[in-house]
Amino acid sequence: MIDTITLEVARYRPEQETEPTFERFEVPFNKDWVVLDALNYIKDRLDGSLSYRWSCRMGVCGSCGMMVNGEPKLTCATFLSKYVPGPIRVEPLRYFPVVRDLAVEMTDFMDKLKSVKPWIIRQEERPLSEGEYLQTPVQLDNYKQFSMCINCMICYAACPVYGLDHHFIGPAALALAQRYNMDSRDQGTDERLDLLSQHEGIWGCTFVGECTKACPKNVDPAGAIQQYKLKAATEWFKSFLMPWGRK
Amino acid sequence: MGKRSNEPLVWSLFSSGGVIAAFMIPILLFLFGLAFPLGWIEAPGYEQIMTLVRHPLTRLVLFGLCSLPLFHWAHRFRFTLYDGLQIKHLNELITVFCYGGAVVGTLLAGYILWNIP
Amino acid sequence: MKETHNYTLYHPKWYRERVSTYWWARQWSYFRFILRELSSIFVAYFVVLILFLLHALSQGPESYAAIQEWLRTPFAITLNFISLLFTLFHTITWFNLTPRAMPVRIGGKRLPDWMIAAPNYVAWVVISAIVAWFVIGG
Ligand code: SF4
Ligand code: FES
Q: I want to staple A148 with a disulfide (CB 3.0 to 4.6 A). Which of A16, A217, B97, C89 is the partner?
């Protein structure tokens, strides 16, 4: 059994360096500790200036995503014991601009989420007096998997297509669009189609499949995108064969 | 909004080509590329093959087998060049080369199959 | 995206890493992906080979014998062997990804992936047998 483990933590302090560097910290090894615990130990005892994001430390808030030994992980759900004897390399999420140390800039992601209109769109709202929109368990099950996303951006850090082209809408946002498209209460599929059927939408995806492997919530964005491609292609042929069918 | 593209069409061709390639190519490549030349299985004679190829249904299958997998190649290769080599600025050229190649191959396949005596 | 956010104006400078041209060589799973994509080259090669075979056939027995002769050269054997490996890789990855793209739901439950992939393999064996039967015996 070892007593300590070394963390190589990426530091980037824009006022003093132009490129990130690594700093080594030795932290006590505890088999119940996750990488986030080790970072908290560093912040509390070794260097209070270390910057990173976290909140729930139970895999719900989605703010603690970082690269751990080159793989995007929720640091609150990644145990130190997996990396014994170390060292463990902790870096900010890949493909995003770094603001400071382990914190990345996420405006791009936020804008993309918003751009797919992730809310229920109704052609006409029903008056309150007519009651709620009912949904059967089967209808719920249709999109439930895609609704589990916690916006941790881990899938973006796993996706080379996003890394290469920041215009690509990307896994989580596309899965989220699909989540609403498949919701029986939603009528916004057509409204979302224009954005989603651009090259930067679903067609930019080459089904690398890494997003699905990396997702801590089992959302399967890659699957969502392929399913949507199939649907969009079918629609395309339909509108081609029956031009009068679509508005 | 942005351009509504031909992506659905080329993607459909890519997919159907992928399916045909997955099901048919390994066995044919095994027979004609390895088993027959190496004598593991006795190769069919000229006349025997010709009887098979002359059948309209075989020609149809062969046409599909040549054309669609070429579109499969075109699509994947286009994205590989596009992402793998990061040469997006050559986008137009790549598109013409890939899908153009597939179209030429398709025409060629049609011509050859049509002219089999 | 185009919207500018006022607060980002006052940010200190960000660090943006450029993605290396060799990004696919840096991670095994990316490399595997590139191999899968490159299998398409061998698919295209196969089509070219078939076109040459068909062309030779239509030219008569002599040209067909000539191309068979070429197929026996070590170069052709090696090329075809490598192509076979790549096309097999294509087949396997293709079948295994099918459940992702086409999930099947029965009674509201999503069928396990293998149940969707397995019929593909069965069909593959059957189709291969039929093709072989036609080519060898037909
Ligand atoms: S899809 Fe998964 S990996 Fe991507 S942001 Fe949502 S929870 Fe995170
Ligand atoms: S701290 Fe909330 S998900 Fe990790």
A: A217
What is the Cα–Cα distance from A10 to A101, expressed in whole angstroms?
A: 6
Q: Residue B30 and residue B36: Cα distance in Å, rounded?
A: 8
Q: How many domains does chain A have?
A: 2
CATH at residue A47: 3.10.20.30
- Write phi, then psi, for C32 (nearest 5 degrees): -60, -40
Ligand 2 within 6 A of A61 CB? yes
Does the distance separating the beta carbons of B9 and A195 come in below 8 Å?
A: no
Q: How far A22 CA lies from chain C's nearest CA (Å)?
A: 14
Contact B8 A233 (CB under 8 A): yes
Report the distance separating Cα B32 and Cα A240, nearest Å: 40
- Coil vs helix vs strand at C66: helix
**In a domain? residue C57:** yes
Write out the residue range of the structural domain in which residue A55 sits. Answer: 4-104
Is A82 within a domain?
yes
Are C127 and B72 inside 8 Å of each other by CB? no
Q: Angle between the C61-71 and C28-59 helix axes, to the nearest 10 degrees?
A: 150
List residues bridging with A26 in a β-sheet. A6
Residues of C in contact with B53 (CB under 8 A): 54, 57
Tell whether C17 is covered by a domain: no
Residue ID of nearest Cα to ligand 2 atom 3: A59
**Residues A51 and A165 both lie in one domain:** no
Residues near B23 by Cβ (< 8 Å), separated by ≥ 6? C91, C123, C124, C127, C128
Give the domain CATH number at A203.
1.10.1060.10
The predicted model scores a pTM of: 0.89
Residue A72 sits at φ, ψ, to 5 deg, of -70, 130
Best of A95, A161, A166, A198 to disrupt the B interface (most B CBs within 10 Å) is A198
- Here the tokens at position A59 are 């895999």
Number of domains in chain C: 1
Interface predicted TM-score of the whole assembly (ipTM), two decimals: 0.90
CA neighbor of A160 nearest in space, from C27, C35, C96: C27
pLDDT of chain A, 247 residues: tens digit per residue = 688 999 999 999 988 888 999 999 999 999 999 999 999 999 999 999 999 999 999 999 999 999 999 999 999 999 999 998 889 999 999 999 999 999 999 999 999 999 999 999 998 888 889 888 999 988 998 899 999 999 999 999 999 999 988 899 999 999 999 999 999 999 988 888 888 888 888 998 999 999 999 999 999 999 999 999 988 888 888 877 776 654 4
Q: Pick from A53, A80, A104: which residue ends a domain?
A: A104
Mean predicted confidence (pLDDT) in B23-47:
91
